[in-house]
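Homework-ish question, so no full write-ups if that breaks the rules, but can someone show me the predicted structure for this set?
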Amino acid sequence: MEYSRNQKILWALGTVVVLFYALIPVVWIISLSLKDPTTIGDQNFFPREYTLDNYDSVFEGGLGFNRALINSIGIAIITTLLALALASMAAYAITRLEFPGKTLILAGALAISMFPAISIVGGLFNVWRNIGLYDTWPGLILPYLSFALPLSIYTLSAFFREIPWDLEKAAQMDGATGMQAFRKVILPLAMPGVFTAGILAFIVAWNDFLFANVLTATDAARTAPVALSYFRGASQFQDPSGAIAAGAVVVTIPILIMVLIFQRRIVSGLTAGAVKG
Amino acid sequence: MAVAAETAQTTAPTTPTGLTDRAKAERKLAYILCAPAVLTMLLVAGFPIIYAFWLSLRREDLRFPEAGEFVGLSNYITVLGSSTWWNDLGNTLFITVISVALELVLGMLIAQAMYRAIFARTAIRASVLVPYGAVTVVAAFAWRLAFDPATGFAVQLFNLDPPPLTTHNGSLFIIIFAEVWKTTPFIALLLLGGLALVPEDLYKAAKMDGASAWQRFVKITLPLIRPALMVAVLFRTLDAFRIYDAAFIITRGANDTETVSILGYNQLVNRLNLGLGSTVSILIFICVMIIAFIFFRFLGASPERR
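A: Not a homework solution, just the prediction itself:
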């Protein structure tokens, strides 16, 4: 569509407004994290002097943040790998095989993705305490998995449906073995979908607060967002805001890097999973 | 494979059960492939709901583990008869309706801006993904610390008196803003996907016929992106109704801003009252089902038909 001069100015202005909208809160939390603890109450948007003191106090160990970060990373990675393995198998069966109950599985997965987490966390809390999964990695991986699976199955099914599977047969006719045909032809075509589903599953596990807050009690499994919410000042008179801001930046950076590198895939994954189905 | 199965069924002689060996093998493989995912979802999401329902029919208090007994619907009478539940439900519905409405309007504007952007297309899409990628807890902290009278810049900058986090409505709106900021990109991206499907020629034709920009939006864009729009609204409504993270971080229920999820959490974790906590959980579950039903039945949202 061609634009008049006024329209061009309008949409350019729109772009700037959107950029501000998206970035101001992030810039604010970064700038707060760089403030000197003594001037943190100066109510300025930008720090007068930049310091990394807050990051030092976050990482020095007293707040349990290092251990929480390890828990978060480990739990999120294991969740992602398991979700991808289980969801790929299910999505392959759903897109490629004929069997009764296919729609039931898809409908059930959709229903689970609508479940309010608070409705299952109480039951899990009691069962986990009795079977020893309370405050452990598997105790968090399992619920994350059950919420990442519907999303992954839908995303992968949408991608698998687009793969020209006949190529597999063609490769076999040209003399490739079944495994070769799968590895050299199908796998490269499926990778973008697997990648997208993986990022979305990782975000489910990384972002969670409710399960981690209810199902953990100590450093053994407490994840970074929960550790962040428990930050207190060294004394009652010390404001933990700077440390919280620094921790918040640390928690956000890995996801931001991933999101920015793989933005095209995430956008297509989000819209494939939810619009085209 | 589907084609292969069909031809196999028509050409090969069928066994007494009506299935060829090949179709049977295919079914077996399919069930083996689906089993791990389905079992996980059933055990970790399906079973706890049933278990929670059972707990909700019992007096079950971890501080008095010996005193557990079946009490029928008396927990439901207790919860539904309390003003706390209705008050929290009111807060939750208020947050849900206002957030989703704001997200729709903002999301549509952002989607249009992204769709029409003449420069910095990649930059704008990348920056819109920033709130999406931010952890909810972090988004909530960013807003809380910004409006905190001691550390924030916003109270002084906008000359807010009294500071919003000290009042009921102010706190609710900070929770809403944190929620809206974080989730609008999701809506915008879904709507952008819908916008891309609208043929540009329709706009040109309508423009030639003298339709204003607003008319073009209402008569062409809206009807055509309706399916994407309804799915986005359905998912976000269900999501906003179970709001927990932002409310927990920003007020923890102070200033009478408790939401139903926070109520359930407090019963379960702080009071260790599994019976009443599960009752609240089940009531939230029923509310979510009712909302989903309304969307499917009356508003024509159908994730299947997309």
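Now go work out the reasoning yourself. Hint: Chain A has twelve helices and no strands.
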